[in-house]
Amino acid sequence: MSTSPPPNVPPSIETGLSTDNSSSEGLPNYIMEADVIQTIDSDDQGIGDDLSTYTTSLASSVSDYQYENGRRYHGYRRGSKLHWAPIDPNPQKILDVGTGTGAWAIDIADMYPSAYVIGTDLSPIQGSWVPPNLTYEIDDAESEWTYEQDSFDLIHTRYLTGAFADWPKFIERSFTANKPGGWLECQEIESRICSDDGTLLPDSALVKWSRLLREAAETYGRSVVAAAQLADWMEDAGYVNVTNRCFKLPTNAWPKNPKMKEVGMYQMMNFLDGLQALTMALFTRALGWTPAQVEAFLVDVRRDIKDKNVHSYNNFYVAYGQKPE
User: Fold this and answer.
1) Which of 52, 65, 146, 215 has its CA 20 to 30 A from that of 78?
2) Higher-confidence residue: 42 or 24?
């Protein structure tokens, strides 16, 4: 049985970890103000029938073009950061571990044409049209690394929560592969579901799902709540100038703030799209559930995810550190 705190209890320091040698930054310890919604007679509290509206809104934001000097540029993710670490402005070599579709690797290769970018993953799902300075490799980052020592300016991970059985070992390998002055940056979400105002009930399906997901992952020696420890592990491996930032990601569009509402819309769509895939294997293999039991349970989980009366969120950590020069 997991000894982790209940999933509806926020971490003790929501803005990051304070350690002797690292700086902890991020959003202030504040409670996001919830938007006022009309009470309606619906199981989904106003979102179920509006999913197509949300999807259309998100799609329109992709075509919200930016115009500059008479030229049109894409508006997708405008203002977002590809990385937080203050890397060399002319990096020579970058590694994206767990590249997935390769979207981040493509963007970083375009941003830094001076760099040779490598994107690795277990599955060859990446597209064939890539910048000339980007290559994809099928590789298991948990196996021994064959990269040349002291060779990378930046090693990057994003959304690999639960992917590693031994995060400290991965961080140690990254330390060896990074050149002096190079950076490791990990952007990882914590699966624990939090709420600051008591609207996430302890007996809700969403809380139960979060708890069972942790327990199922732990039976395989994996943690889905390791993100808060990344900065400490970086320091243990020898990284300096370690910074740990933490951001609240609302689970749907419940916040009043327009930017956080948009973040919540994206988070909800991602959550709903990936819920079945994320749950089915772990619950059937580790917990002994049948597929029918999983599907029946997820009906209630989806209802909680879409309920704007539930002011829940995940903590998203951005930890980065530098190898001493």
Assistant:
1) 52
2) 24
Report the CATH number at residue 142: 3.40.50.150
Q: Is the pLDDT of residue 73 over 60?
A: no
How is 62-100 classified by DSSP, letter by letter? HT--EEETTEEE--TTTT--S--S---SS-SEEEEET-T
Query: Is the residue at 137 inside a domain?
Result: yes
| pLDDT for 116 | 98
**Is pLDDT at 17 greater than 80 in this prediction?**
no
Quickly count: other Cβ atoms within 10 Å of residue 208's Cβ. Answer: 16
194-195 and 312-322 as β-strands: parallel, antiparallel, unpaired? Answer: antiparallel
At 117-153, the pLDDT tens digits run 999 999 999 998 999 999 999 999 999 999 999 999 9
Q: Is 51 a domain residue?
A: no
pLDDT one-digit tens code per residue, 287-319 = 999 999 999 999 999 999 999 999 999 999 999
In a domain, 42, yes or no: no
Q: Copy the structure tokens of residue 214.
A: 């942790």
- Residue 190 contacts residue 315 (beta carbons within 8 Å): yes
Residue 187, strand partner residues: 158, 318
Contact 24, 230 (CB under 8 A): no
- pTM confidence score: 0.83
How many other C-beta atoms can be found within 10 angstroms of the C-beta atom of residue 12? 8
The encoded tokens of residue 198 equal: 């008591």
Query: Does residue 23 form part of some domain?
Result: no
Containing structural domain, residue 304: 81-323
Measured CA to CA, the distance from residue 85 to residue 87 in angstroms comes to 6
How many structural domains is the chain composed of?
Answer: 1
State the Cα–Cα distance between residues 141 and 27, nearest whole angstrom. 31
Q: How far apart are CA 124 and CA 285, in angstroms?
A: 25
